[in-house]
Write a structure and sequence with these properties.
Length: 221
């Protein structure tokens, strides 16, 4: 079934049966105090704005039976998949693998690595664990999309200019139509959020389209 989503730089027509909702890294490590985001010096409360809009689109996607995919950034407990260059970077208060109040920072299986309660995956929703910022790099995301006949992605998550932008660029080069739901994304830097969305929709939609939760819910409802 073809649907039309109001978006920028123009409305986009997509086949609902070939569309998945992709929710990127809505993890406690980024959204809650004591996690990776805070160790980097960020005010994690800035990401809260995306939670309710994500809840609304997640509910709408589940109602339609659309494929919902969640991603999580993180590493193996032995850090064998974590590049030293990533671990050593900057001067965080705690490094990847160090023990924090939500367990070891950005480590799979730890409470902080998991998805926030408000958006917790349900049975049948694939969760993609990724070692990098992009969700395609060293994961089976493309295989999951191919096996489900997916051509279009409705993209939500954090942070707008880091994991959302990286993933959208990866997806665009692989031929997927990406519709980024702007209010379902957030950044520790409001100006990067705004610019991150602008970069996607500029030049006639060089990486895809930008829409929002209301337009998505109206289009699939
Ligand atoms: N630091 C930051 O803005 N983001 C990340 O490290 N990962 C994601 O965006 N998920």
């Amino acid at each position: 079934m073809m649907i039309t989503i109001t978006a920028e730089p123009q409305s986009v027509q997509i086949d609902l049966a070939r569309t998945a909702l992709l929710i990127i890294d809505m993890q406690r490590d980024f959204l809650e105090p004591g996690g990776f985001g805070e160790t980097l010096g960020n005010d994690v409360s800035l990401l809260e704005a995306a939670v309710d809009p994500c809840k609304a689109v997640l509910a709408a996607a589940r109602d339609t039976g659309m494929l919902v995919i969640h991603t999580r950034e993180g590493h193996r407990p032995d850090l064998s998949d974590a590049p030293p260059a990533k671990i050593e970077r900057g001067a965080p208060s705690k490094r990847i693998g160090d023990l924090g109040p939500m367990g070891r920072i950005l480590i799979r299986g730890e409470p902080g690595h998991d998805i926030i309660d408000a958006l917790y995956p349900i049975e049948g929703e694939p969760v993609i664990d990724k070692p990098g910022k992009g969700a395609f790099y060293q994961t089976d995301l493309q295989l999951v999309l191919q096996n489900n006949g997916i051509e279009n992605l409705l993209v939500c998550g954090v942070t707008t200019e880091v994991c959302v932008n990286t993933t959208v660029r990866e997806a665009n080069d692989r031929g997927y139509r990406c519709v980024v739901l702007g209010d379902c994304c957030a950044s520790y830097f409001p100006e990067f959020h705004a610019m991150g969305l602008k970069m996607i929709k500029a030049q006639g939609g060089i990486f895809g389209w930008v829409s929002d939760s209301r337009a998505m819910v109206a289009a699939v409802g």
